[in-house]
Amino acid sequence: MDHLFLYSFLTLPVIFTIILIFYRYKSNLPPGSFGWPIIGETLAFMNQNHQDFISQRMKKHSSKIFKTHVLGEPMVVLCGTSGHKFVASNDEKLFRIWRPQSTIKLFRSSYQKTTFSSRTRKTETHIIKAPGFIKAEAVVRYVEVMDSIVTQHMDLYWEGKNKVEAYNLSQILALTLASRFFLGLDDQSRIMKFTNLLDKMMLALHIFPVNFPGTTFYHAMRAANDLREEMKLLIKETKEALLRGVDPQNILSHLIVNADPVSGEFWPEHVIADMIMGVLSGGFNSPAMTTTFIVKFLAERPDVCAKVRSEQMEIASSKKAGESLNWEDAQKMKYSWNVALEVMRLIPPLQGTFREAATDITYEGYTIPKGWKVYWTVSTTNMNPDYFPEPQEFDPTRYDKGTPPPYTNIPFGSGTRICPGKDYARLQILTFMHHLVRRFKLDLVNPNFKVLGGLNPIPTEGVHVRLQPYSA
Questions:
Q1: pLDDT tens-digit profile of 179-218?
Q2: Closest by alpha carbon to 468, among 298, 308, 289?
């Protein structure tokens, strides 16, 4: 708690700004509460079940919009499909990208003085999308290699084990795939090191950035600095390979040989390291959590697992001995994907995302002042019985009745900032399911495992699963 009081002094200028804005707009601000002085409602936002945090305030203030104060910022929460649509439709007109200070400090080195909001959309597109490494047409080429990597992973970490911890293994698999496709790296010892470092960083994405020994953020910052040094070493190795005439054709090499489309200058190594850390995080955190909770639900629902296995066995029976999966096989995994969609509806890998008002915005008759932060969250739609009858029930068949209405179940986001790696993530999830259910019956050992509150539903105690192999 001493750290929180120290952090409070750092946020005093923000508080004075809020007071000035309050008196300017007090008759037209959205309903809601700023919570406690200085810290606002941050502790509840960080630690409470996220759906409960949002739903309680929707009931108390408004089902469409309310104000709060979290992570040192005045914030407006937009709720429901209308809120999702409003943000998605105006993402580059009324809003700017925004990240909490904890995230910025973790992923941007001390050399970089600019903020996330100053990075242009053109630069972001260059980093993630160009030249199409994770677009659908590129992912088609990854299928056989991904199938081989997942097979090797299952042989190494799952086969012959009586019991496994699914979350850590899901992290290892996610980063093994991301390292291979984004960095051209196959060294398992380095991948394990990266996994341990990223695991510490993920615990500190949305918390008070108090960098003192013993705090979660302190350990995360040390991990971030270590990972950045690892990335710099990998950059040097990739440059040496390029000088030898080797062209790895991955995101890392692309960032090295291509200039910033905005400035026309080549990025220094520390900037490339920061960008690659962000790319790795995207291919690590959400895929690992989704895969973990798929294992959890399959273990709890043998009937669902049996249907997934039937679908996957039918696909496997159509293959020749030793033949890899292909893109057409993945398109046949309809029930398996419905299972994944239902898992992501019940436990979204990321509960929501932030924006900043680029100008004064009028929404639902209220004013969102320029500079205020805006937050939209899937928890206002994915558990709505109007869209998902009996929303607490795990029911993959609900998607057989048709696609959910727009802006309801959106695990990959929407609008111009929809996740560019959604096709890659879909293929990764389905390939894993294909191998898992064909090999093992699953039994969940700790069904009441603890899940971290806040935006990232991290299973802090792990997800322990007993394996029973099918006979050959």
A1: 999 999 999 999 999 999 999 999 999 998 999 999 999 9
A2: 298
For residue 223, with 0-12 CB atoms within 10 Å meaning exposed, 13-18 middle and 19 or more buried, which class applies?
A: buried
Distance (Å, whole) CA 366 – CA 57: 17
Q: Are 105 and 221 in contact (CB under 8 A)?
A: yes
Residue 390: count of CB within 10 angstroms of its CB = 9
Residue 216, CA distances (Å) to 8, 137, 204, 207, 240 in order = 17, 40, 6, 9, 36
Count of CB atoms within 10 A of residue 216's CB?
14
Q: Which two tokens stand for residue 350?
A: 């990321």
pLDDT in tens, 1-60: 445 545 554 555 555 555 555 555 556 999 999 999 889 999 999 888 888 999 999 999
Q: Is the preceding omega at residue 213 within 30 degrees of 0, hence cis?
A: no
pLDDT, position 239: 94
DSSP states of 419-463: -TTHHHHHHHHHHHHHHHHHHEEEEES-TT--B--SS---BTT--
**Distance between CA atoms of 458 and 27, rounded to whole angstroms?**
40
Burial of 226 from C-beta contacts in 10 A (0-12 / 13-18 / 19+): middle
With H, G, I as helix, E, B as strand and everything else as coil, classify residue 368: strand
Cα–Cα distance, 39 to 17 (Å, whole number): 15
As beta bridge partners, residue 73 has: 70
The 10s digit of each residue's pLDDT in 272-299 is: 999 999 999 999 999 999 999 999 999 9
Q: Which of 428, 345, 398 is nearest to 139 (CA)?
A: 428
Chain centroid, CA 107 distance in Å: 15
Confidence of residue 170 (pLDDT cuts 50, 70, 90): very high
- pLDDT over 70 at 82, yes or no: yes
By the 8 A CB rule, do 211 and 218 touch? yes
Query: What distance in Å separates the CA atoms of residue 379 and residue 377, rounded to the nearest whole number?
Result: 5
**Residue 174 CB burial class (10 angstroms; 0-12, 13-18, ≥19):** buried
* C-alpha span between 468 and 471 (Å, rounded): 9
Q: In the predicted model, is pLDDT for residue 123 greater than 70?
A: no
Residues 320/329, Cβ–Cβ less than 8 Å: no
Q: What DSSP string runs through 202-259?
A: HTTTTS----STTSHHHHHHHHHHHHHHHHHHHHHHHHHHHHTT----SHHHHHHHS-
Distance separating the N- and C-terminal Cα atoms of the chain = 56
